[in-house]
Amino acid sequence: MSDHNTVCFALTSIQTSKSSHELLSEFAQFAQKLPDSVNRLIIDMSSVNFIASNQFAIFGSILHSLKRSKPNIEIVMFGIQKNIANIIGKNGFYRHLNLPKVQDQYNTVIPYKIFKTSEIIEYGNYLTTNLFSRKDLPNMSSTVRDNIRDYLLEIFKNASDHTDSQYIYTCGQYFPKSSLLYFTLVDIGETIRYNVDMYYKNSIYPAPENALQWALIPGNSTINDGSPRGLGLSLIQSFVKLNKGQFFIISENETYEITSKGERYDIMKNVFPGTIVTLAFNLNDTAMYVMENEVSPEIQF
To answer: Where are the domains of the chain?
Structure first.
């Protein structure tokens, strides 16, 4: 801190992992609690040797929300290493930092975008163009592909239906060494914990201890409109396990993940002021995925 109007936050390398979600949640809390007297934020990037490009969806949601709440604050990113500047130049985040655009020669990036929650058609087109038109995705029937796409659209719609969030932040990255293609969506708004607590507010039953775990049970929903719930999630879970991909949900301090280590729920020490969803496709998978039938959410290959 060089004077009373300037504060500094130091980042370290960012993976798609619990420890990195902890760090970004700590940064989000730090940014939200900045007093009005602060007019300059320095983000120290000098220890950052790597950023998983999909995590810019989280990073961007924090910075964009800060600029909306404090439009006059100056955000300075200090010590950006050349390889990080190269990643930022490829994925579209460069627009925030006045850095030059870099050509994505090997088609490894799904571009960073901010959507208004009313722009679900635009978001659907973005999914089709940047994710589901890729020829290196695992082989899947049009029904499986459409159902996965519909689930990602459902996440977008949930942010509009369940929260006061005005924006969705998204981007992705393919990592050739692991053969994993990551895609991340973020909203800053009421968390799953908040919505489940409100749902149980006038109930004779107590709210569940783990709101995220409750919300991920097929059929559970805080909206009672009679429509079936949880089928899209069941398909994603089945697909990720068979595909040997990865899946993460973070909301407030509750987390759920499917990785090579298995499936687990966990609690973070830091709180993220919204919800993060990441889906990673294993592009080294040679299986063919088809629906058992058009009603069942199970996948066969």
So the answer is: 6-101+108-300
> Does domain 6-101+108-300 correspond to CATH entry 3.40.50.12780?
no
| Euclidean distance between CA atoms 107 and 262, whole angstroms | 29
| Whole-number Å distance between alpha carbons of 76 and 74 | 6
Give me the mean pLDDT over the 227-250 stretch.
Answer: 83
Quick one: pLDDT band at residue 40, thresholds 50, 70, 90? very high
Q: What's the length of the chain? A: 301
Backbone φ and ψ for 8, nearest 5 degrees, come out as -130, 140
What's the average model confidence in pLDDT over 55-77? 94
Residue 1 pLDDT level (bands cut at 50, 70, 90): very low
Residue burial 214-237, b: 16+ Cβ < 10 Å; e: rest? bbbeeeebbeeeeeebbbbbbbbb
pLDDT score of 102 more than 60: yes
Q: What is the C-alpha end-to-end distance of the chain, expressed in Å?
A: 57
- Cβ-in-10-Å burial (0-12, 13-18, 19+) of 292 comes to exposed
Cα dist from 5 to 33, 74, 86, whole Å: 14, 10, 31
SS (H, E, C) 222-233: CCCCCCCCCHHH
Residue 240 near residue 258, CB atoms below 8 Å: yes
